[in-house]
Design brief:
This protein has four helices and no strands. By secondary structure, the protein is mainly alpha-helical. The protein has one domain. The longest helix has about 45 residues. It starts with a helix and ends with a helix.
Amino acid sequence: MKRLFDRFATGCARFSGRPAMLMVCIALSIVGAAAYASGDEHFLGGANISISIVTLLLLPILQATQNRDGAALQAKIDELIKVNAAARNDLIGLENRDEEEIERVRQDQEGLCPRE
């Protein structure tokens, strides 16, 4: 179930960062502005819902940007691990493993570092 959710969340984040989603947000914003300008209560209520939807859609767009930046950073770090002979190659791709395994690696690394 967790893997299914992870794949679903990743797919949503990737989709929401696409230009088509931005066009939907722009269209809903235009509808909201037109509703406000008209002064019609019924139209204004629909516009309010549209603007709320735009707000909710912006969150995954921002998340998609963070995901892309994080993936690029991880690729760079993986490359540094590969070229450093002293680094542990089993850490390459660690971000794709489950949370429990990542936490085990973090605890192992904390045990290697002396505390002040």
